[in-house]
């Protein structure tokens, strides 16, 4: 039985990857941070009683900022494959916590690679590094491929650039099977609530159900190549099964603006959005509402730009060329942006249906911080 160790197991990708590897017969180990409240909601369905023997899903307390902890866990698990998905992964927040982002997202990767070297596991343990399309940053060429130069535009992206190159360096210097997956944005119903797609699909569901009045967003012009996390975790695994350690772009090849994602999302509940104004003054109004279940009067303003969500430096356009992965790893994504968005909206409608019942029964629905 192969053993995999996943950092970031409680995150979106960690949850989908755990499911995939368990289905493939792996013993899956994950590193989970100590938190003041439970934060395992995405993997609770995989829980196994820690008091019984023969478990194949095992969590360890740890943190990418603690090299002693990383060395000890790798020594104990002796993994065949490590998937380094743990990160402070929010680009906008990285401007608020730049040093922490550098430590965890950049040096955290070094800690894993050094642990492999210290423990003499260079020939045994393969490493997948969660690299990112944010490395491309300021547009140099489109579509972006493995040969496009990097120009990172945030503390997050700069930290990930260190992680990218230290992975390449340890591969070349010590012959470790270490690979970068340069993944473009990927989303799902498990996406964190403050990333833009999930923020939009949650707001769509809540507005349709009468639980929220308005959605505030930042830059509506940004364009992203959005895929589905389920499609992308399969590639992480395939990258480590390929006969050579290399770096790979994973993307759909289709780009969509934030504004169009808003339109797509509300269309899923039968609400047409018409945008007026430009940039900081832009507002989205209800055009036609064709769904009799969610009647909202024509002209109602439900989207507004709030400059507080603008970033000090922005990444304007991402669109990936994944021909290498499509050809050599025999990969085809199942989802496109329409089916991705539809799945997310339907999942959020289901999620908030409970709140609607509570609200109708007179219970107070708490606001959330964002
Ligand atoms: P999430 O934000 O959903 O998950 C991040 C995970 O990292 C969580 O499990 C989090 O733990 C953990 N983590 C955060 N800080 C630390 C730390 N100091 N030590 C150990 N673990 C930590 O991210 P995704 O699942 O979306 O992304 C996975 C990886 O892929 C990340 O590295 C991200 O930067 C990268 N990536 C993501 C893309 C995307 O579009 N989703 C695209 C390209 C790259 P906790 O639950 O406790 O917060
Ligand atoms: P990104 O994802 O920065 O691409 O990083 P995010 O969804 O946060 O932003 C995408 C684009 O939308 C614009 N935007 C907003 N973003 C957020 N979060 N909230 C808003 O209200 C809002 N309004 C407009 C942003 O300015 C941006 O242009 C994600 C993360 O998963 C990274 O970890 C990963 O490396 C990259 O994708 C690829």
Automatic annotation (TrEMBL):
UniProt feature coiled coil, ranges: none
GO biological process assignments: 'de novo' GDP-L-fucose biosynthetic process
Organism domain of life: Bacteria
Catalyzed reaction equations: GDP-alpha-D-mannose = GDP-4-dehydro-alpha-D-rhamnose + H2O
Gene3D superfamilies on file: NAD(P)-binding Rossmann-like Domain, UDP-galactose 4-epimerase, domain 1
Pfam families: GDP_Man_Dehyd
Assigned EC number: 4.2.1.47
Encoding gene, per UniProt annotation: gmd
Organism encoding this protein: Portibacter lacus
EC category: lyase
Protein known as: GDP-mannose 4,6-dehydratase
InterPro entries in the cross-refs: GDP_Man_deHydtase, NAD(P)-bd_dom, NAD(P)-bd_dom_sf
Keywords: Lyase, NADP
Cofactor(s) required for function per UniProt: NADP(+)
MF terms in GO: GDP-mannose 4,6-dehydratase activity; NADP+ binding
Matches recorded under PANTHER family: GDP-MANNOSE 4,6 DEHYDRATASE, GDP-MANNOSE 4,6-DEHYDRATASE
Purpose: Catalyzes the conversion of GDP-D-mannose to GDP-4-dehydro-6-deoxy-D-mannose.
Span of domain NAD(P)-binding: 5-344
Family: Belongs to the NAD(P)-dependent epimerase/dehydratase family. GDP-mannose 4,6-dehydratase subfamily.
């Amino acid at each position: 039985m192969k053993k995999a160790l996943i950092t970031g197991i409680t995150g979106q990708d960690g949850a989908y990857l755990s499911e995939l590897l368990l289905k493939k017969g792996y013993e899956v180990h994950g590193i989970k941070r100590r938190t003041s409240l439970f934060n395992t909601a995405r993997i609770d369905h995989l829980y196994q009683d820690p008091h019984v023997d023969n478990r194949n899903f095992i969590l360890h307390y740890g943190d990418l900022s603690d090299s002693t902890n990383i060395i000890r866990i790798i020594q104990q698990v002796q993994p065949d494959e490590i998937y380094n998905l743990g990160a402070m992964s929010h680009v906008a927040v990285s401007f608020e916590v730049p040093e922490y982002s550098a430590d965890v997202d950049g040096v955290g990767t070094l800690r894993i690679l050094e642990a492999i070297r210290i423990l003499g596991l260079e020939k045994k343990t393969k490493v997948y590094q969660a690299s990112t399309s944010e490395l491309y940053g300021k547009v140099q060429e489109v579509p972006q491929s493995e040969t496009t130069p990097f120009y990172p535009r945030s503390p997050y992206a700069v930290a990930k650039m260190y992680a990218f190159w230290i992975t390449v360096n340890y591969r070349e210097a010590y012959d470790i099977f270490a690979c970068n997956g340069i993944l473009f944005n990927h989303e799902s119903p498990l996406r964190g609530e403050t990333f833009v797609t999930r923020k939009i699909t949650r707001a769509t569901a809540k507005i349709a159900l009468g639980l929220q009045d308005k959605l505030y967003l930042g830059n509506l012009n940004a364009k992203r190549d959005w895929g589905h996390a389920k499609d992308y975790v399969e590639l992480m695994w395939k990258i480590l099964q390929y006969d050579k350690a290399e770096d790979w772009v994973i993307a759909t090849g289709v780009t969509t603006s934030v504004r169009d994602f808003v339109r797509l999302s509300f269309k899923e509940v039968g609400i047409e959005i018409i945008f007026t104004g430009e940039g900081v003054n832009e507002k989205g109004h209800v055009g036609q509402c064709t769904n009799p279940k969610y009647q909202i009067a024509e002209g109602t303003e439900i989207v507004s730009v709030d400059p507080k969500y603008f970033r000090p430096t922005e990444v304007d356009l991402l669109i990936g060329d994944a021909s290498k992965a499509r050809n050599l790893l025999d990969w085809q994504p199942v989802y496109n942006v329409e089916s991705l968005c539809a799945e997310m909206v339907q999942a959020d409608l289901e999620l908030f249906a409970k709140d609607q019942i509570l609200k109708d029964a007179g219970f107070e629905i708490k606001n959330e911080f964002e």
